[in-house]
Amino acid sequence: MGTSDTYQEMYRRRFGEDVEFRQEMYQVLCSEFFQKYIPEDVTILEIGAGYCEFINNIEAKRKIALDLNPDVKKFAGNDVEIVMASSTDMKQIKTKSIGLVFANNFLEHLSKEDIIKTIREVYRVLKGGGKFLILQPNIRFCFKDYWMFFDHITPLDDRSLSEILEINGFKVVECRPKFLPYTTKNKLPKSVFLLKLYLKFPLCHKIFGKQAFIYAKRVWEYETDAK
Question: Within a 10 A sphere around the Cβ of 227, how many other Cβ atoms?
């Protein structure tokens, strides 16, 4: 079994039993939370789209899923365009053609060098003022379980991620260090109803939240030049 096949099998084992629930979960997350960040006429690119839970359930004028794993083709909705490419080299995506980029539990799977390359590629493809939304395990609050997944490479928290974004031409507009629980592989009940309640009560985020949510904006060139 090659490296690519190993990772495909790993993701099937990890998420296979939860695919249906995760789709239901992201229907709620998209409608109750993420959709408010999405302009009606925007083109969205999800990098490391995987099982396409986000891109399938968000409403947008145009939707693109980018991933190296061929399994993405099985899960992308009919209204989702698929780009088979690395986030470090998205030459199939035109410069300044995207209004919003989303990364969901993705950057921790990259080396530090590839995280920087990815952020710079996101900057390139985004229009001026474009949005970069990141949902990310926060090692500050999940350090005991962060390495329970074999393919985690780089430990990140909200502060280090904000720093590298700002160094590479982004302005962090909103940062929630504690937003969602770390994983569905825990003792918390899997319930769409409870998720809706969770989103409505920020106190729950402070207790159970182990993933950070960051909303960053691509700085316009003249703003960068003025610094």
Answer: 6
Three-state DSSP string of 19-59: HHHHHHHHHHHHHHCHHHHCCCCCEEEEECCCCCHHHHHCC
Domain boundaries, the chain: 3-226
Determine contact, residues 22/15, Cβ cutoff 8 Å.
yes
Each residue of 99-122: pLDDT tens digit? 999 999 999 999 999 999 999 999
- For the domain covering 3-226, report its CATH number: 3.40.50.150
Measured between its terminal Cα atoms, the distance across the chain in Å is: 50
What band does 217 get if pLDDT is binned at 50, 70 and 90?
Answer: very high
Cα–Cα distance for residue pair 32/29, rounded to 1 Å:
5
